[in-house]
Amino acid sequence: MPLDQTDRFVQFRRELHRFPDVSGHEVDTQKRIKSFVSQFNPVASWEVGGTGLLLQYGPGNTGPVTLIRADIDALPIQEVNTFGHKSQIDGVSHKCGHDGHTAILARLASLLAENPVANGRVYLLFQPAEETGAGAAAVLNDPAFADITPDRAFALHNLPGFQQGVIVCKPGPFTASVLSMIVTFTGYVSHSAEPEKGRNPAYVMADFTLRSRTLQQPADQADDFALITPIYTTMGEKSYGISAGYGEVHLTLRTRNAKRMEALTAELLALLTELSTGTGIDVATSYTEAFFANENDPDAFAQIKQSALKLGYAFVEKQEPFKWGEDFGLFTQKYKGAMFGIGNGEDSPALHNDDYDFNDNLIEPAAQLFLDLIAVAHG
């Protein structure tokens, strides 16, 4: 491919990097994507999931249906990099590489324009709000998506710490189940000289936070893997004559699968009951940012491996799932498919670090791998 052809996708990626949008607010990002990909002549396009975009290639009403998905949202992180394409939005930056994932899907759109789909249909999904776990559900619940039933669904994620361009995949669970738990502790205030006349939740909160550690199994290789990470806590006011009457503890939970997550949340609820009984502290729980585990279909995994090796890419079959969550798991709960990783470089800063940046050298090989997956299914 001519250098200038490669450059325009790199430039597109860097434009997205300069003007990031956080989850659920990808209005400008959606406009930029729509404007850029319109030159690749999709059969049809729709806005989906609020701020997402769906493209169709191949006019066939019969034959196989393939979905390829990329996420488009950024994070509320202040960038510290000083390169020319640094974020222009204070407190917001692409620190997970979704700008790169979007550029890969745009390059795939151009390849499909050059190599028309003769059999069946291919859908390219630019999905919003992955970071909050809300985007996949928004797309799947959108009436515009209702009649689309993929035979296969594929997605990728870049992987810092892995050799540039290596393809990483495994059958079965590829990423963790993730759920955030919010626990509120309600007593009532009193004078700090007379705490016995109030109900201060501090010690119940402290005991819960400390005891929750005993419910973990943080070893990556363990079948009953469970990680509990304290995220946020608050209690009372900065008024030193008042004994607090309300507090919150927020935890993020990670397990291999939904069944283990159900067991872990049940253990935490039992612990809360044990600790709060007889204290006069009312405890309530709620949940947010749920991510289903990505369950890679064995045949879809085999197809990824076969295409990667055919293209001459290094391939690593991972033995245990990644510990981070990815809301493409909701798609693999519903359709046969798989997510794979592509190495961002062994020296790349980690995901969600303030000095991270996507490796532009991945755009072309990743797009070619997706194209080969499509060719195998639609040839």
From TrEMBL:
Keyword Ligase: no
Keywords, alphabetical: Hydrolase, Manganese, Metal-binding
Family annotation (Pfam families): Peptidase_M20
Required co-factors: Mn(2+)
Gene3D superfamilies: 3.30.70.360, Zn peptidases
Cofactor: binding details: The Mn(2+) ion enhances activity.
Entry superkingdom: Bacteria
UniProt-recorded Gene Ontology molecular function terms: hydrolase activity; metal ion binding
Binding-site positions, Mn(2+): 96, 98, 131, 157, 352
Family annotation (InterPro entries): Amidohydrolase (IPR017439), Bact_exopeptidase_dim_dom (IPR036264), Peptidase_M20 (IPR002933)
Annotated NCBIfam families: amidohydrolases
Protein name, as recorded: Amidohydrolase
Organism the protein comes from: Spirosoma endophyticum
